[in-house]
Amino acid sequence: SFINIPFSWEPTSGGSYNITVSVDSNHEIEELNESNNNLTMPVFVGVPDFTVTSITFNTTEPLLIGDVIEINATIANAGSKEGTTNVEFYDNKSIEITRTQDEYSGGKTITDTLILPEALKIRVHFSVIGAYSTITICNKSGCDEELYTTVDIKDYWTRWCDGDTIRIQSRRAEFTVDRYETLLASKRISLDARNSTPVFAPWNLSLQEFGWAINGTHDITVKVDTYEGNNTETRMVVVNPSLDFTVTNISFNEPLLNESVELNATVANYGVRNGTATVRAYCDEILVNETTVSLNFTDHPKIVDMWWNANITNGGAGPHNISVEIDPDNVFVELNETNNTLPPQEIFVNGTDLAVTDIEIPCGQFGGKRCYRDKIESIKVTIANLGARNASNFTVMLRDGLGEGNRSGYAFFNKTIPRLNSSESTSINVTWTPKEFGKHTINVSIPFDNTDNNKINNERLVNLSVKP
């Protein structure tokens, strides 16, 4: 007769085994045939064998900053048994963040931030950390890694930060970050033996402000757990800029001093994705206005109206250079970085234009009567305002310099003119008593300030001779 005896066995690994069943293994019973008490049978234990067979993208290359791209990974189970595993998608790329000790004057703290939208976790690699550096690694919600060293450190990966943001807070530090790595997605899959399946993960490149970190060559790695260890496949891919902001024209009307000037800046986006950028206007490199503009790549160029008060704080009267720049802080990586500004355009702000137009001295000049030392002489000075603005409370100064062309003599007349309207002139009668004989220079000047268009005509000289 026969009897079935069940038993269980849990193999710890796959492969070929010999299963042996023995009866009366201690030979306690005498039998007719002692040779048939053992039976051995071969058994093969199958296991899953996961591999990454390909990595592709749902768009043609080159990939562009500003897009959300789908990473397609094909996962195969080459084993003889179905199984469940994790599939992880990583992005690894070189970057450059460098700080030196000189940047921390006054004990300030510097925060460098890297955001890779929708990432699950992120870490960075320091190629070097200088001795006596203090660095704190933080994510969006808090800080959990403090680095302080008394010696130089090289080749250091930070711990993983949860989320899509890592912040490097440093005080009196010297370091270079040369790489980041981020976990983009993690998927759990089940797969039958001798089968394959696609697994998809989003890769968000939409944050144009961090194009400096996104632009360039990436190592996209897909990892899958297997029964024996890890299986990894890496695809190198290049991400290119997609914006191209440019200033194509600047126009304005010539203003009077203290008037508001409307600057019309024509800007465009010659790229292939949409973006929003800062636009700044400068007068002689002084910032006079700032705004933001959104530019779709399908739009025609836009005219941005920027007002500027042409007063003495913003340059004053006279000729100036006006320039307009888009993305002045180089926030965005662009297809063309050279067309964000135009050569400066000249503008003339018409203010006052005080001029010494004539000096009448009846003596001491060729063909006239002689001037004598200690003799009182009359001088008539004519002052004009050639500008478009009225002038008020300005000073007229007369000096007597010994020697031809000498401007450094003593002042013998100083008068404040309360008002001189545009296009008008006035005369001043002055007495002069020379104290020395020889060559003299009578210098009439109006101290120049930036309400005046032209400083060249604010002074006039007359050379003459004084006799003993």
Question: What key attributes describe this structure?
Answer:
468 residues, mainly beta, eight-stranded mixed β-sheet, five-stranded mixed β-sheet, 1 helix, rod-shaped
The major pleated sheet works out as:
8 strands, mixed
Work out the number of β strands: 32
State mean pLDDT (0 to 100 scale). Answer: 92
Beta-strand level of the residues, as a percent range? over 45%
Q: How would the global form be characterised?
A: rod-shaped
Structural class: mainly beta
Name the assembly state.
single chain
Report the C-alpha radius of gyration, rounded: 43 Å
| Unreliable residue runs | none
N-C termini distance: 161 Å
Number of helices: 1
Portion of residues within helices: under 10%
Give a verbal description of the structure.
By secondary structure, the chain is mainly beta. About 0% of the residues lie in helices and about 55% in strands. The protein has 1 helix and 32 strands. The chain is rod-shaped and about 165 Å long.
Describe the protein's topology.
Blueprint: E1 15-22, E2 38-45, E3 50-57, E4 63-64, E5 68-77, E6 83-99, E7 109-115, E8 121-129, E9 133-138, E10 143-149, E11 153-157, E12 161-162, E13 165-171, E14 175-191, E15 195-204, H1 211-214, E16 216-225, E17 230-240, E18 245-251, E19 260-269, E20 275-283, E21 286-295, E22 302-309, E23 318-326, E24 345-349, E25 354-360, E26 371-372, E27 377-385, E28 391-402, E29 410-420, E30 425-432, E31 438-445, E32 459-467
Parallel strand pairs: 4-17, 26-32
Antiparallel strand pairs: 1-2, 3-5, 5-15, 6-14, 6-16, 7-13, 8-11, 8-12, 8-14, 9-10, 9-13, 16-17, 18-19, 19-22, 20-21, 20-23, 23-24, 25-27, 27-30, 28-29, 28-31, 31-32
